[in-house]
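Lecture notes, structural biology module. Today: joint structure prediction for complexes of two components.
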Amino acid sequence: MKGHMRVSLSSTLQLADGPGRTVEVQAETIAEVMASLTDRYPSFQQLLDRGVAVSIDGQIFRDDWTQRIPLGAEVFLIPRIEGG
Amino acid sequence: MGHDQKYVDKKYEVVGERFNRPDGIDKVTGKARYGADASAPGQLVGRVLRSPHAHAQILKINTAKAEKLPGVKSVVTFEDMPDLTGGDQGLADILENCMARGRALYDGHAVAAVAAVDEQTAAQALKLIDVKYKKLPHVTDVDEAMLESAPVIHDRIITRGVEPAPTKPSNISARTQMGYGDVDAGFAEADVIVEKTYKTEQTHQGYIEPHACLASVNPDGTAELWVTTQGHFVFRNVCASLLGLDIAKLKVTSSEIGGGFGGKTHVWGEPVALALSRKANRPVKLVMGRDEVFRGTGPTSSTSIDVKMGAKKDGTITAAVAELRYQGGAFPGNWAMLACMTAFACYDIKNNKSIGWDVVVNRPKVAAYRAPSAPMAAFAVESTIDVLAREIGMAPIDVRLKNVAREGTVAPYGPTYGPIGIEHTLKAVKDHPHMRAKLKKNQGRGVACGFWFNIGGQTCTDLNIGVDGTVNLTLGTVDVGGSRSSMAMIAAEELGIPYEQVRANIADTTSLGHNDMTEGSRGTFSSGMATIFAARDAIGVLKERAAKMWGVPVDDVVWEKGQAVATGKGHGNLPPLSLKEIAAKSGRTGGPIAGHNEVVADGAGMGFASHICDVEVDPETGRSTIVRYTVVQDAGKAINPDYVEGQFQGGATQGIGWALNEEYIYGDDGRLQNPGFLDYRIPVCSDLPFIDTKILEVPNPLHPYGIRGVGETSIVPPLAAVGNAIANATGVRMTHAPMSPPRVLAAIDERAHAG
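The predicted structure, tokenised, for the full assembly:
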């Protein structure tokens, strides 16, 4: 069931016509968060193209957009990281 | 079949023990086949012509004479590698980096390539290629590249992250800002404020094995590539995109790898070798020389960093600001952004701000190097913390513990930390006998901390049980540090059989689903997870077969210690069936027994480390000798402690090399002056003491065994640990890495003259 949640965005994910620092969405999974943001803020797609990861209660999910988001969880979008 | 990746505490039979690696015998006897060890009938020798200029317009490339030379079978330039990237700027940058398109952007940039019947003919052909250059102004220093007066390398770069957006292009590709709180208010609270500026020089991953591949493209569009790489599936996808090949028709096989550390996550000569082969219609082997590796592949950023930190007399850090300038070579990167994310990540500082500037210069395109960008930021921050501690009269370890990040701390990049291990490592350092060992004359001790994210990613694993009960584990993540041993141990643990009964292999790209690179310390985390789930799949099949053999419902069968056991009323007198017994009958109970798993392994736990370094500095020469070194790091769970310790030691060694010697040196002409191991000095065994290690295990809640990546974090603290040790040995604070003998001696002399 879709839950109401507040999503925070890193300062590096700011766009003039983007979601800002926090945004409220109805979602159950990471994919639904991303779809909601892209629907409401078409420019958000630019950020997705550059790479966005999601921190859920401090655990970073980089790729698995099927991940369910527990009610009340801290949801934070950050740049997608690669390593060496 | 879904599997739960949550951590479950359990007792292990195999995991945690020390076993020999399955590739060990081949490696010590010289049988192991690396990138240059493949051959094919009719193969040609590929060689690359590289720009001698730091920045130049390519007016004309005349290949006619080279093409006419007997024995030359193909010559390629950018015209043979048309742009198929469809507006993907990142991919277009990779293509342009592999082969210059109208401009040479750095000394060593590839401008043409040949394939010939032998080495001599190929070398002669390179000399016959006539390239007309028009030299352009260049810039190689990160600070100079940011000046308004600097030559602008790309007209298309408008700085991202600045409002309002600049109207003119520059070399600054992006500005990043992170942090929270009110730093001005924080500094107003401080009793002591320290401000320092640091520089770090460009270093290379220094892998012993140069880049090498054997490419073969057929007229029907099928192709094969044997290559030393950290990720053959990703290489396949990138090469197929650049050359217009079908992914399924390009078979890529990863050779044994003689080190990568991030430098073999990117393609360099591989698309060129494929283009040469396609044009010649023969296999082409392309092996880089060491000078090409230095000039033409991807080192790390050189940097310039300002740090300002304030603290109360009780050690509380009230505010911290860092401004980090990182060059990414001739193409835009996000290296300064990573530095912003990691700079203060070990600490709970209520007012912090990091500003990053990503800058392009006329140097090779920067590639990841083990915890990319974090070591330089840690050098600046961890050095400043020591200065701050000295100013307020506290032990540096106590200042770190006073401000350490814990579960619940808000990370500088935004989210709140879950369970993390930095406090555990600092406490272990404080209690370590190394901290109480006496120092001799001219010796000093330094401590520093480090952080790296770690990542997961796409992973696919097969497990096949032979009729004799031995197990083939088929992996798609390249083994760069002993992961075949660790994966075999995990499979043995799950199945309840001896380690020796499992053989782990790395599959080519036609034999398994996509696997992401072995990067971001993900190999053991991700493939470990997929191996656990594949083994559990196989156990499900084993139970079904046992149920058939007994003629009982499968729900009445459990798997215990490597055998099926019938439970429930009426089955009590059935003797258990071992894996071997079930496997032996598999042909008559349903066919081969296998397990399989594909997973996006996410939730990689973060890596934290604290290091102790003792150094002795010769006051007459400025030479620093590491006399004792200890690494304490959180591994979540060490599967094979030998290889975890190996990662700790390897990372520390590379960090020490960076701290003391390693440095790209450019002349005023923008050309690299030291592209060889004679003049670019990496540490060898005789330079270092045995590096002591202590593995901590704070389980990662999102891995069934609690695994965290361990491959990268250990390179983060050494620059600062060495710098802090030198400061304590000499009284001189070094702010420019590497802290090579001439720099240390100059600093000692300067202090002496200052009285």
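Point to remember: Chain A has a mean pLDDT of 92.
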